[in-house]
Specification:
By secondary structure, this protein is mainly alpha-helical. The chain has one domain. The protein contains two helices and no strands.
Length: about 70
Protein backbone atom coordinates (compact mmCIF):
# COMPACT_ATOMS: atom_id res chain seq x y z
CA UNK A 1 0.00 0.00 0.00
CA UNK A 2 1.34 3.40 -0.99
CA UNK A 3 1.38 5.82 1.94
CA UNK A 4 3.03 8.97 0.57
CA UNK A 5 4.10 10.76 -2.60
CA UNK A 6 7.63 9.36 -2.37
CA UNK A 7 6.29 5.80 -2.47
CA UNK A 8 3.95 6.83 -5.29
CA UNK A 9 6.89 8.03 -7.37
CA UNK A 10 8.91 4.88 -6.64
CA UNK A 11 5.99 2.65 -7.64
CA UNK A 12 5.39 4.60 -10.84
CA UNK A 13 9.08 4.26 -11.73
CA UNK A 14 8.93 0.52 -11.01
CA UNK A 15 5.93 0.17 -13.34
CA UNK A 16 7.86 1.87 -16.13
CA UNK A 17 10.88 -0.38 -15.49
CA UNK A 18 8.74 -3.53 -15.66
CA UNK A 19 7.09 -2.32 -18.88
CA UNK A 20 10.53 -1.72 -20.42
CA UNK A 21 11.61 -5.24 -19.42
CA UNK A 22 8.52 -6.66 -21.06
CA UNK A 23 9.15 -4.68 -24.25
CA UNK A 24 12.75 -5.86 -24.34
CA UNK A 25 11.85 -9.49 -23.64
CA UNK A 26 9.19 -9.34 -26.32
CA UNK A 27 11.90 -8.58 -28.86
CA UNK A 28 14.60 -10.95 -27.62
CA UNK A 29 13.02 -13.98 -25.94
CA UNK A 30 11.70 -17.07 -27.67
CA UNK A 31 7.91 -17.30 -27.72
CA UNK A 32 7.69 -19.96 -25.01
CA UNK A 33 10.10 -18.14 -22.73
CA UNK A 34 8.28 -14.87 -23.22
CA UNK A 35 4.87 -16.35 -22.46
CA UNK A 36 6.21 -17.97 -19.30
CA UNK A 37 7.77 -14.75 -17.99
CA UNK A 38 5.27 -12.18 -19.28
CA UNK A 39 2.37 -13.35 -17.14
CA UNK A 40 4.19 -12.69 -13.90
CA UNK A 41 5.30 -9.24 -15.00
CA UNK A 42 1.78 -8.41 -16.15
CA UNK A 43 0.26 -9.40 -12.81
CA UNK A 44 2.81 -7.33 -10.92
CA UNK A 45 2.26 -4.29 -13.17
CA UNK A 46 -1.51 -4.58 -12.70
CA UNK A 47 -1.10 -4.89 -8.93
CA UNK A 48 1.12 -1.80 -8.78
CA UNK A 49 -1.22 0.17 -11.05
CA UNK A 50 -4.12 -0.64 -8.72
CA UNK A 51 -2.07 0.60 -5.75
CA UNK A 52 -1.28 3.83 -7.60
CA UNK A 53 -4.96 4.42 -8.39
CA UNK A 54 -6.02 3.61 -4.83
CA UNK A 55 -3.53 6.17 -3.52
CA UNK A 56 -4.44 8.85 -6.07
CA UNK A 57 -8.16 8.48 -5.39
CA UNK A 58 -7.79 9.04 -1.63
CA UNK A 59 -8.29 12.61 -0.46
CA UNK A 60 -5.30 14.31 1.12
CA UNK A 61 -5.19 15.62 4.66
CA UNK A 62 -4.16 19.03 3.26
CA UNK A 63 -7.73 19.59 1.99
CA UNK A 64 -10.11 18.60 4.79
CA UNK A 65 -13.84 18.38 4.18
CA UNK A 66 -15.80 21.51 5.20
CA UNK A 67 -17.64 21.18 8.50
CA UNK A 68 -21.43 21.49 8.50
CA UNK A 69 -22.73 24.36 10.59
Amino acid sequence: MITDDQELKATQERIVRFQRWLAQMRQTARAGEFEAAAGGYRLEIERMQAEVLDYLLRPTAAHPEPQAA
